[in-house]
Amino acid sequence: MRRTNRKLHTMPSDDLVDTFSTTFGRRPDGLWQAPGRVNLIGEHTDYNGGLCLPVALEVRTTVAAARREDTLVRMVSLDLPGDVVEVDLDHVGSDGVTGWAAYVAGVLWALREDGLAVAGADLAVTSTVPMGAGLSSSAALEASVAAAADGLFGLGLLGDDAGRARLAAACQRAENEIAGAPTGGMDQAVSLRAREGHALLLDFRDGSAEQVPLDLERHGLALLVVDTRATHALVDGQYESRRRSCERAAEQLGVSTLREVDPAGLDAALARLADAETRRRVRHVVTEIARVRGCVDALRAGDVEEVGRLFCASHDSLRDDYEVSCVELDTAVTAALQAGALGARMTGGGFGGSAVALVRADALEVTERSVRDAFATGGLGEPAFLVLEHAGGPAGPVTG
Ligand code: GAF
Asked: Which of 106, 194, 221, 260 falls 20 to 30 Å from 75 in CA-CA distance?
């Protein structure tokens, strides 16, 4: 199956409004949307105070919403049919909200915790971001709810980058504290702060963001995202154990985060760590941050071959040093490179999910075939594909 962003971008607004109206017996006050993401480079760097370079996809989560004057949140999903879920905002922090409702109610809860005048809401959601594909369906859901809250309660935060960063912080808090996934903030930040046609250089030392033009078409290129369909879960222990290992290493090195380790002094820093596994984890983080810088320079210089080389080096480091790849991701990367991709790497948290390959636009089909054949030969499940020709824009109201 070939899925392009543009086809999946079609907003199912009519169905959503119909479902909202039949479920809640009134019309929504408005519709808001937020994108999933693919990270170009800079993996497992966000929670180390580092750099990353994600891109917003054109696949999106859309929410129809209406404000309430009480503290009740009522939600229904078009994609996960079931009963209407009801949560009282006053009890979100203590009641152990589970499932997809945690991402929705958690965001409204976190905005209130931030001192914003947010009350309850009725919401209907639907998404074209494939779930469990490592393309941030959770963050897209959170960001769409944050955008809806901004509109429903007149927060005025969508108007500038500082406001959007504040919304993203609330989304991350919801994910960490209510959904229980100890993630680092990249996904929520790009969903809210991206700019169409650009990759977003995020610096987690100071929270700043810089737009980096991404004109794939000018170079005759496209990004092929391979959803391996191997399951990944950020709430399982692997992600958290990598995070804790980095924190322990920083402590041993006497720095606040691994961002403070100077790449020029990496060997000396590694020599101070007794444990070989910890040394590999640190080497990944420090070299990956340097690769993000290299990738931004290469993109600005139009040196797409160098971008491809950095993709490959990133994958090797994630596979060998950070040990978050898996047979499906390695197979996708190898098969894409065999078909002539300029570079390929796993993207997102790893242990399944998606890989991304930088390919000539006229080689998309041959690359897909190569990946599909390699999966069949390896006895792996059927992968799915998504083509990114143009970087998407950020969360906001649905217009038109
Ligand atoms: C997941 C997390 F949600 C992000 O915060 C980030 O750490 C990523 O894995 C790895 O780069 O997407």
From this structure: 194
List CB contacts of 350: < 8 A, sequence separation 6 or more. 43, 44, 134, 232, 318, 322, 324, 325, 326, 329
The catalytically annotated residue of 187, 203, 227, 321 is 187
- Cβ-based neighbour number of residue 162 at 10 Å: 10
Ligand 1 atom nearest the C-alpha of 46 is 7
Q: What is the ipTM of this complex?
A: 0.99
Closest atom, ligand 1, to C-alpha of 184: 5
Tell me the CA–centroid distance for residue 243 and ligand 1, in Å: 10
Distance 303 CA to ligand 1 centre (A): 26
Instruction: Report the separation in Å between the CA atom of 395 and the middle of ligand 1, taken as the mean of its atom positions.
Output: 19
- CATH number attached to the domain at 217-388: 3.30.70.890
Angle between helices 100-113 and 161-173 (to 10 degrees): 120
Residue whose CA is closest, atom 3 of ligand 1? Answer: 183
Find, among 325, 317, 328, 249, the residue nearest to 282 by Cα. Answer: 249
CATH architecture of the domain 14-214 equals: 2-Layer Sandwich (3.30)
- Taking CA 33 as the corner, what is the angle to CA 28 and CA 38, rounded to the nearest 5 degrees? 160
- 187 Cβ closer than 6 Å to some ligand 1 atom: yes
In one-letter notation, the amino acid at residue 145 is V
Closest approach atom of ligand 1 to CA 139? 3
**pLDDT 10s digit of each residue in the chain, 400 long?**
334 444 444 556 889 999 999 999 999 999 999 999 999 999 999 999 999 999 999 999 999 999 999 999 999 999 987 889 999 999 998 778 999 999 999 999 999 999 999 999 999 999 999 998 999 999 999 999 999 999 999 999 999 999 999 999 999 999 999 999 999 999 999 999 999 999 999 999 999 999 999 999 999 999 999 999 998 665 568 999 999 999 999 999 999 999 999 999 999 999 999 999 999 999 999 999 999 999 999 999 999 999 999 999 999 999 999 999 999 999 999 999 999 999 999 999 999 999 999 999 999 999 999 999 999 999 999 999 999 999 999 999 998 7
- For the full predicted model, state whether its pTM sits above 0.90: yes
Q: Is the CB of 51 under 6 A from ligand 1?
A: no
Is 187 considered catalytic here?
yes
Q: Where are the domains of the chain?
A: 14-214, 217-388
- Cβ atoms of 23 and 77 within 8 Å: the answer is no
